[in-house]
Amino acid sequence: MEKAKFALIGGSGFEQLFQQAEQLHVRTPYGVASMTVGAVEDRMVAFMARHGEAHTIPPHRVNFRANIWALHQIGVDRIIGLNAVGAVNRDFKPCDIVVPHDFIDFTKTRPATFYDEAPVTHVDLSQPYCPETRRVLLKTLKKTGLRVWQKAVFLCTEGPRYETPAEVEMFRRLGCDVLGMTGATEAVLARELEMCYAAVCCVSNMAAGLQEKLSPAETSKVSKLISPRLEQALIEAVKALPVARKDCPCSSALRNARFP
Q1: Model confidence, pTM
Q2: What average pLDDT does the structure give for the chain?
Q3: 3.90.226.10, 1.10.1060.10, 3.30.70.260, 3.40.50.1580: CATH of 6-241
């Protein structure tokens, strides 16, 4: 099978975008990761449902290291992560699309690095998301007619519970705009393997304290509303992404990251 250079990580359903799709189960040092690989016109693309095909894996139990390692193993260079998020910034509203430029990581228990042993490795996250991939995403997303925010700070929480109003107010004062439970971990691990990673976030609700209550059903309802336009934008983004990586820090992330 031809290697995939591009990948989408998100919820279920995006497999339908592919032609001649093939299910793969990739063995890694961290466990087995499953994905669908298929063609988007002339490009091979991997799709990974981070919560499993039937959405059975909670965010704090996602095997992030296996997922990212498996994509790297099959040749992926660029990853687009799809996230449903709650809005902390009161200017953001449900059905808005957000392409974050930075994040704050409030996770607590999940393994978040490939480098637990020597050589001691510290990757640079001065630009946490790939700027080259972000530019292409913003260009295609703005054609959807949806309201798109091109700068935002993403706050990653541990989950699986939703946040409290007091926590949300703290995050707002820290300068966060949206919050979710997966995006930051994927971004860090991708950078550690010199892969490009950028996120597309769909605002599904206002965060706790900004609306009366929260439910997964609300998230699903908003996703269904915007999915057709979002899917088309992702297809266009994959087609427009350059294969060569020249204008981002991702492909050389390990160059000066290790102690001799």
Answers
A1: 0.93
A2: 90
A3: 3.40.50.1580
